[in-house]
Amino acid sequence: MADTSFREYTVSGSSATAILEAVKSFSVLVNELMKVMNVQTRDANGALTLDPTAWYPVDNYLYTYKKIDMLLGARGLEKVGSFIPQNAVFPSNIQDIYSALASIDIAFHMNHRKNGQPMFNLVTGEMLEGIGHYRSEPVDGKNEIRMVCDNPYPCRFDQGLIKGMAQRFQPQATLTHDMHQGCRLKGGKSCTYVVTW
């Protein structure tokens, strides 16, 4: 059963497309994920297809990640996260690794709605609260950025997302999980990742 604590939230179809891109070689899994997400749209051949302009319940989306974890494991979650920078909508002013990682929080909110309202307004800069954040903290004097995540998405998904975004601008970037700061998978309120290049 899906977690119902996020029932007032929806996620953009363009974000959801990342899931299918990451697991498209597993046709049985693709069909199962379509059912879990309650996809109704069909393509010209009658196959279920995600509509990138539609909005899907976050509860179903989160349950989809649990299915991926059960069937493909943590690496599957990481792979899905790495596809997000290629599919989701991001702000247009990204120029380097600093602005790229700082933009994840804005993009995260741009790709979610709360009670039908966009969670980030590009015109006013207003951000709605309630679904957590991706906080980017550059470390002075080092090629290092700490990312603190307190959102409902799985830890390994976030690792793939952050590393994928970082490597778009610094291909040699690496990511480590600072377990001394806790982990959501182990009951913590947030996860902290260290990106270096």
Q: End-to-end distance, in Å?
A: 40 Å
Q: Assign the CATH superfamily.
A: H-NOX domain
CATH topological fold name: H-NOX domain
Number of helices: 6
The percent range for strand residues is 15-25%
CATH class reads Alpha Beta
CATH architecture: Alpha-Beta Complex
- Summed over residues and divided by their number, the pLDDT gives a mean of 89
Structure description:
This is 4-vinyl reductase 4VR domain-containing protein. By secondary structure, the chain is an alpha+beta fold. The chain is 40% helix and 17% strand. The chain has one domain: H-NOX domain (Alpha-Beta Complex). It has a four-stranded antiparallel sheet with strand order 2-1-3-4. Strands 5-6-8-7 form a four-stranded antiparallel sheet, covered by helices on one side. Helix 5 (97-110) packs across helix 6 (155-169).
